[in-house]
Design a protein that fits this description.
Layout (H helix, E strand, L loop, with lengths): L1 H15 L1 H29 L1 E2 L10 E2 L3 H7 L4 H32 L3 H12 L6 H11 L6 H8 L14 H26 L3 H9 L4 H25 L7 H7 L5 H4 L2 H11 L3 H29 L6
Antiparallel strand pairs: 1-2
Length: 308
């Protein structure tokens, strides 16, 4: 009887939500055609010695040969270290920066100044990565760059930042924060508007100051959004914006700038090793999926918020 009732409730829910399922069909078709089919074809290519003239289904089958080549490569650990190192900075400094910006904007009383600051911090997101990298190169130029001019004025030696491996992670992190923090802060600002003003009024009546309200109302109210975005960020922990790095790096800083994405670009696009590049890309996707599953499981146990 209970089983029959569950089935009946499921049928009723489906009938009730038919318009939503119909609206979801185009999204499903998009993901199947442009996401899952290419992923499946990429997996097949990674397991064979792909030759464009023969096609995907006629090329020689080699199994996991290219996966072994990547793992046994002399560059493997360097790529993993650089990718994880840059992403660690993105998960700490880069992830926290939009939250701090949103909290600061939330405290601005005058709406005119708040909108001005929000617009100024939001605009860099629309600037092309090519332009942003060009700005970085100009500012850090060893001969005419603003930063080096300031160092010279202070009596310090000029530094060629873009040829020194030790500076790359910091430069990339600061550049990314400047470009994306304002855009990412919008999500947190939207979440802040959902926190009831009555909670703040009750806290003020009880004598709570700004800091007490921040730690007892604002941050707990933001926690679900922070957890969800962090879980989504974890899934891309091996995926660094290689397009920007390709524009910035050169052989002299490969030791800290070369990541999985740039390595795939050189081997797959420039050298035409499509099967090897597909193997590395699929390896990256599997590790990302495992990290998301692991992080989601921890989030379920430690909080009420999770992706599923």
């Amino acid at each position: 009887m209970l089983h029959f009732q569950k089935k009946q409730n499921m049928r009723n829910n489906i009938k009730k939500n038919i318009p939503f399922y119909v609206m979801f069909i185009p999204v499903l078709i998009y993901f199947v055609i442009f996401r899952y089919v290419p992923l499946l074809l990429s997996l097949i290519i990674s397991l064979e010695k792909y030759q464009p003239a023969k096609g995907i289904f006629s090329s020689k089958w080699v199994g996991i040969e290219y996966y072994k080549q990547f793992i046994n490569s002399v560059f493997f650990w360097r790529l993993i270290r650089n990718t994880l190192g840059i992403n660690f900075l993105q998960l700490t400094v880069g992830f926290v920066a939009p939250i701090i910006l949103a909290l600061l904007l939330n405290e601005v009383g005058r709406m005119r100044y708040k909108k001005l600051v929000q617009t100024v911090t939001y605009l860099p997101n629309f600037i092309s990565s090519v332009v942003v990298v060009g700005m970085v190169v100009t500012f850090l130029s060893p001969s005419t760059g603003l930063v080096n001019n300031i160092l010279a004025h202070l009596g310090m030696e000029r530094i060629n930042f873009l040829t020194e491996p030790s500076y790359f992670w910091g430069i990339y992190t600061v550049m990314t924060i400047w470009q994306t923090a304002g855009y990412s802060a919008i999500i947190y600002l939207a979440s802040l508007t959902g926190i009831s003003s009555e909670l703040y009024e009750a806290a003020r009546i009880d004598g709570a100051g700004r800091w007490a309200q921040l730690f007892n109302i604002t941050l707990p109210g933001l926690t679900p959004t922070i957890v969800l975005l962090f879980l989504m960020k974890i899934g891309r922990v091996l995926d660094v914006g290689y397009e920007t790095i390709v524009l910035m790096y050169n052989p002299s800083i490969y030791s800290t700038a070369d990541v999985i994405g740039t390595y795939v670009y050189r081997r797959g696009i420039l050298n035409g090793e499509y099967s090897f590049a597909s193997a590395v890309g699929f390896f990256q996707s599997v590790i990302g999926l495992m990290l998301v599953l692991f992080a989601n499981k921890i989030a379920k146990k430690t909080s009420e918020t999770s992706l599923w």
